[in-house]
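Sharing a chain and its predicted structure for anyone who wants a worked example. Both blocks are below, sequence first, tokens second.
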Amino acid sequence: MGVLAGAEPFGHTGSAETGFLLCHGFTGTPASMRAWGDHLAGAGFTVRCPLLPGHGTRWPDLNRTTWEDWYGAVREALLALLATCKTVFVGGLSMGGTLTLRLAEEFGDRIAGIVLVNPSVTRLKWDTKLLPVLGKIVPSVPAIANDIKKPGETELAYPRTPVRAAASLAKLWAVVRADLAKVTQPVLLLHSSVDHVVEPVNSQLVLQGVSSTDVTEVVLENSYHVATQDNDAEVIFTRSVEFAKAHAAQPEETA
């Protein structure tokens, strides 16, 4: 089976001055980022949003991948943007925010700033510790997708949560949490006041853990987890453009 219609990776080639890498969430697809990407492209940025390995096809495919595969895909996309754009920003939703943090930890000031939307770095529920064992017995559990407040809006994501892949995500959380102090770039963190997937402690851990001195927190009052497709989407889009313009490298003045 090929990639689901609408789940394809996308890109917009705009200015060579500023690039923006977008990272989608666990079991999700670039569809959840498309409107955001269109808005960034409309502002003149070069935009890339890869489809993460194991995503956008059938949920069993995700169980055959690990966080290193997902990270490898966004890392490759980032390197391509860094090769073509003077200034590069990275943004992500949920696990996409986790991957964004990992890129910030590795690449330092080569990334001009990061935008995080309901990022995940932990899960407090009791079953999380059982994921490695559970993955050997149960291939999947009910889906976490489609937590959207806006009527009529649907996330293109898997109908089941692959357990082995979820166990790998938990390993990524531990890696990212351990290195949060390496994040020094400007941070724009937007999180929903009501989120049925990612608990509030996640944003608190990020805000407390990063070393960045330029940090902006925005509470999304009218959206659930998939905020990029929800009532506050325009807030995310507008604030991310303002953030990127404020932190982009200024063109050198000619004499």
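Comments welcome. Residues 10-247 form a domain with the Rossmann fold fold (CATH 3.40.50.1820).
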